[in-house]
């Protein structure tokens, strides 16, 4: 063999054939197809964990609010518990006890609300004596499967259908 033939043979052996590339791409596609549902499941679990932590945060903020503003009792909106720290000192209408992002009611695929508030009037001042915090997935089955609730007892309960009919304790 002369030098030209040897060089031509090496060039032919140096690359991948079209069939080899297609096989590799098919294997990668199969692996991605298997991994994607698992990744979505982990993301949904992370969002549920974030929702549980946010419900705890709001519950603790309610207890702090009740302690700092006893004449008002509890807060009946997330906006009252929130507030921009740059706007000045905390007030009963802007207590700055939760993150402003959480005070919007939307975080990590969940919608949060304070509902079922009971109030009494004492000396012409409305005082909220009870509340319920709810967290529901923005898209049940996609951003989360379960809804979460708590009240002044700070016991988190679960609705497995993703709503606010929370009857089971969180385990």
TrEMBL record:
Transmembrane segments: 14-36
Record keywords, A-Z: Membrane, Transmembrane, Transmembrane helix
Domain of life according to the entry: Bacteria
One of the Pfam families matching this protein, by short name: N_methyl
Keyword Membrane annotated: yes
PANTHER family xref list: GENERAL SECRETION PATHWAY PROTEIN G
NCBIfam families linked: IV_pilin_GFxxxE (TIGR02532)
Protein known as: Type IV pilus assembly protein PilA
